[in-house]
Amino acid sequence: MIVKEIAEKIKPGASIIVVERIKEKEKERQSQFKGVVLSVKHGRQGGATFTVRAILGGVGVEKIYPFNSPSITSVKVLSSPTKVKKSKLYFLRNVSKKKSRQKIGVTA
Length: 108
Known about the structure:
Blueprint: H1 4-9, E1 15-23, E2 28-41, E3 49-56, E4 59-66, E5 72-79, H2 97-104
Antiparallel strand pairs: 1-2, 1-5, 2-3, 3-4
């Protein structure tokens, strides 16, 4: 579960790290996924989700996380843009990393 204060900071364009528990055959481990939030769907309802995109090994990877997932142990918001013009940033799929930072308005 995500704490309410952190859930309010998850917005499109924010850079975040999601730590989740992954249960394999007999072991349980934690995995981190660092990326940019592309969209937040269904507000803060029970079935609300957010999409995170990262480039791993030269390939774009997107993961969709539910806000109420028990497998998420923590979420850390690294940076958040001041103002984003769109609520869904799907156009970032076709843009380089440098260009995406310019369009979103992230300085670092």
